[in-house]
Amino acid sequence: MDRSGLLIILSSPSGAGKSTLARRLMEWDPTLRFSVSATTRKPRPGEVEGDHYYFREPGEFRAMVAAGNMLEHAEVFGNLYGTPREPVEEAMRAGRDTLFDVDWQGGQQIRASALGNHVISIFVLPPSLAELERRLISRGQDAPEVIAGRMQKSRDEISHWAEYDYVIVNEDIDQSAEALKTILTAERLRRARQTGLGPFVRGLMEEEGR
Ligand code: GDP
Ligand code: ADP
């Protein structure tokens, strides 16, 4: 059925598991498009340009913002992050759903944008702050002082949980991934989103038969 694409926003304190959940959702539905952000943060080992992020110098990043090419942007942990606008609008026109891994500031800006009525937003909480720290350490990709900084900011991020449509406490990763698929399935079935349904139902009612 025809419908314009959904914008699915995933936010959480760093380390709660949103990248893992995003990956699971993309494996389940390969038609989903992941919104690749631009950032001034340095790549982590294994991160690929254009796949995980577009890694940019601060000057280049600011030029993209000044040219109006960012749907939203924000400073997180001392680095700039932003969502390139054009690929999102193109996916929406094509009826493709886009998945965003952005912080609360990005969530607010996308909700407030002209595309806001196509947004569904999901906040991922860790079972505890101790477990959050364990996950950041076990990921093994950030220096101890970087992890400490992320832990310090986690309360800030968590304080925005009530701005989201859905909340998942990510205790068991399989259960959380199932919950996420359920949310997306239900949202896609909302009557108002199935804009091609009117003619289909009229056709049903006009069908010859018993
Ligand atoms: P990680 O979340 O610990 O893997 O660390 P990252 O450096 O990849 O991301 C840090 C934070 O920036 C996370 O909260 C992301 O959700 C957020 N982020 C990533 N891309 C964007 C973006 O385009 N816009 C905004 N506003 N936040 C972003
Ligand atoms: P984020 O993208 O929110 O920063 P990640 O998805 O990178 O978080 O997850 C942080 C670490 O925690 C990773 O090593 C990941 O494998 C692990 N992790 C994610 N979800 C769970 C879970 N439910 N139980 C245990 N470990 C998890």
Automatic annotation (TrEMBL):
Binding site for ATP: S12, P13, S14, G15, A16, G17, K18, S19
EC number: 2.7.4.8
Domain Guanylate kinase-like, residue spans: 5-185
Record keywords: ATP-binding, Cytoplasm, Kinase, Nucleotide-binding, Transferase
Reactions mediated catalytically: GMP + ATP = GDP + ADP
Localization per Swiss-Prot or TrEMBL: Cytoplasm
Pfam entry (one): Guanylate_kin
Function per UniProt: Essential for recycling GMP and indirectly, cGMP.
Record protein name field: Guanylate kinase
Biological source species: Paracoccus litorisediminis
Lineage of producing organism: Bacteria, Pseudomonadati, Pseudomonadota, Alphaproteobacteria, Rhodobacterales
